[in-house]
Amino acid sequence: MDIFDKFTKNMGSLGQHTDAEGYYIFPKLEGELNSRMQFNGREVITWSINNYLGLGNHPEVRKVDAEAAAAWGLAYPMGARAMSGATSEHDALELELAEFVSKESAVLVNFGYQGILSAIDALVSRHDVIVYDSESHACIVDGVRLHSGRRFAFEHNNIASLEKNLKRATNLVEKSGGGILVISEGVFGMRGDQGKLREIVALKDKYQFRLLVDDAHGFGTLGETGAGAGEEQGVQDEIDVYFSTFAKSMASVGAFFAGSKEMIRFLKYNMRSQIFAKSLMMPVVIGARKRLQMLRTMPEFKNKLWENVNYLQSNLKKEGFDIGNTNSCVTPVYLQGGVPEAKAMVYDMRENFGIFTSIVIYPVIPKGMVILRLIPTASHTIKDIDETITAFKKIKERLDSGYYRKEEAARFSTTTV
User: Fold this and answer.
1) pLDDT at res. 416
2) Where in the chain is the domain with CATH 3.40.640.10?
3) Rounded to two decimals, what is the model's pTM?
C-alpha cells in the first residue's frame, strides 16, 4: 500500500468537505479588522474573530507595529532564544506578563498550540499521570497524547469525575513514585463555560497534584483587572502553570507561561518547541508590550466588550435561544439539525442576511445538533447585535419549519462554491 493512497481514499473528517473549500471551509474574510468585513464581495457582520478588545486594528497598536517593523524588520533576532535570539525586549515583556497575572516569572513561546503541547511534554515523565478535562482544546489533547505514561480524562467540569480519576492517579503514582498534573481551561472555547477552577483547587487539600490552566479566552476578558479566569474566581495563586496566548485579547501571535521561578526556568531549558525554534520576532514582542500596556491601563476596552456581551446574551435568551451555560464572552447558540441543514443555514445567513459566524457540527458535537458560535468584541455595535438577533429569529423559523431540510438542503449541500 502506498502511504499516499489516503489522499484520494480517505481525506479525514474535515477533508471530506473539500468541495466546500473557500466558502464553508477556509473562507476569506477581507478588509479592515472590524465588526463588519467583506466576504465574497459583500459586507457581513463578523462574529468569528477573537479580537475581543478590538486592539487588532487600533491606531495606536498599528502605529507601534509599523514603527517596530520599520526599525527592526522581521528577521531580528535570528536564532533560537537559547542560542542567539534573546533580547532585552523579550525579557521586559516576560516581566510585565508575570506581574500582570500575579506570578513570579514568565516565559514566551512562539505559538500557543505548539507551546502548550511542548510544555506538557516537558512537565511530565513516564512515571507521572495526567488528569485532564474531556473537552480540552486540541493543543492539550495532542500534548497529552505525547505522554508515555498514564492519562485519564474526567467528564467536562464534573468535579466528582475529577476526584474519581484523582484517586486512580494517586494509586498509580504511589507505586511509580511520580506526580499528578491536572489540566483544565479558564474558558472552554466551544461552550463558553469557565473551568471550575475554584472547585478543582479545593481538592488540593485532599490530593497532591499540580494544576495547569489554559486561559486563552479568559486572559484580558475576565477578572477585575483582566488577568483571567483565576482572578475572576479568586484562585490565581493556586494555578501552578498559567498559560495564555496573544491570539485572542492581544490580537497578535505568540503566547506565554507564568508561574514559579523554578517551574519557568525548567520550561525555558526543556521545551523542545522553543529550544529548537527561532525566537519571536522583535516587532511582535514590541507590539505585544504595547497591547499589554493598553490592556492594563485602558479598562474601557473590557468594559465595552462586556456591555456588548451582556446585551447580546440577554437578548438571545429573551428571544428564546439556547446559549447553554456560558459565563464568558464566548456565545454558543444551540440548534437542532444535521449537516445538510447546517450548510444551507450558513449559506442563507451569509448570502441573504449578511451574518458571518462559525458553525460547529458533527463530529465535533453529537449528531443532530448545530452550534452557531458567536465571538462578541469591543468593536461590535448595538446595531450589529440587533441586526444579528433579528436575522437569527428568521433563520430559526426557517429551520424549525423544515425549510432547510428539503430541496434547499439538498441543493446547498451539493453546490460547489
Assistant:
1) 42
2) 59-297
3) 0.93
Give the span between the Cα atoms of 4 and 14, in whole angstroms: 17
CB 264 within 8 A of CB 106: yes
Contact 118, 316 (CB under 8 A): no
Sign of the Cα torsion 133, 134, 140, 144 reads: positive
Strand order in the sheet with 29-30: 29-30, 36-39, 42-46, 355-356
The pLDDT tens digits of the residues spanning 82-123 come to: 999 999 999 999 999 999 999 999 999 999 999 999 999 999
Q: Is the dihedral of CA 243, 77, 251, 64 positive or negative?
A: positive
Grid cell of 365 as nine digits: 458535537
| CATH homologous superfamily, domain 3-52+300-414 | Aspartate Aminotransferase, domain 1 (3.90.1150.10)
The mean of the pLDDT values for the chain is 93
